[in-house]
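call fold(seq) -> tokens
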Amino acid sequence: MTLPSSPIALEVVQFSFRLGEKQILEAISFQVAQGEYVSIIGPNGAGKTTLLKCLIGIYPGGRGEIRWFGRSLGAYPRRQLARRISYVPQADGRLPPFTVEEFVLLGRYPYLSPFTTIRPEDRQAARQAMEATQVAHLADRLLETLSGGERQKVFLAAALAQGADVFLLDEPTTFLDYHHQAEIRALLRRLNAAGRTILTVTHDVNPAVLDSQRILALREGRIAFCGPPEQLMQPDVLRNIYSAELVLMPHPSTGQPIILPPALETNAEQKRLE
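ret:
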């Protein structure tokens, strides 16, 4: 496995994790450099979301080591960790009764105590985050009135207002139409270009290889691949990850191989086979 050459943001060493009697992750080791964009892919049930939740301490415990910026995950007080790392979970349909601005201001919680009120600098950070994610015009709207794409941009605005160096995202474009997928992908690329470290879980390989500098693939709780996109997009490598024969062709703009959907048999072919 090729190691990142930049300073290390995240180091995972021989990490294993169980939920009840089920072994979810087994001997996971990898690094993420500061400023890197890494996508985690793999089949359903491979342990992708579990790994992300372990990295931020939502799922505590496990065997092995998780280190952020050279320091053990367990050594960070929660507020201090939140100043370095933002977590954007999967959209699950449950929304608090907040306006967009109120929700984005929640991202400032690492800098506030239970006895302090929202400060002018917190409102400024929230406003800048909403402008950067192009949701400032929605500031007074309730979350429940937004489309899925608008809502996802608001979640990213709250993460941005948090002022963190690292963004952990779980399926940030799931259930979005192509327009909003493109907007979210462009926003993440801009954040990465500005120096933020991006670590995202996705089931969609094509955007992952087009956007990421490195891909981590899980299969049955173990690392099946870790490397650059061009090394991933080989028929034998993908077959080992997904147990399927996948058709590849070069992207017309970048030349990067992408996966084509399987073609269904035509009526003529079906009749010939009958």
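Residues 8-273 form a domain with the Rossmann fold fold (CATH 3.40.50.300).
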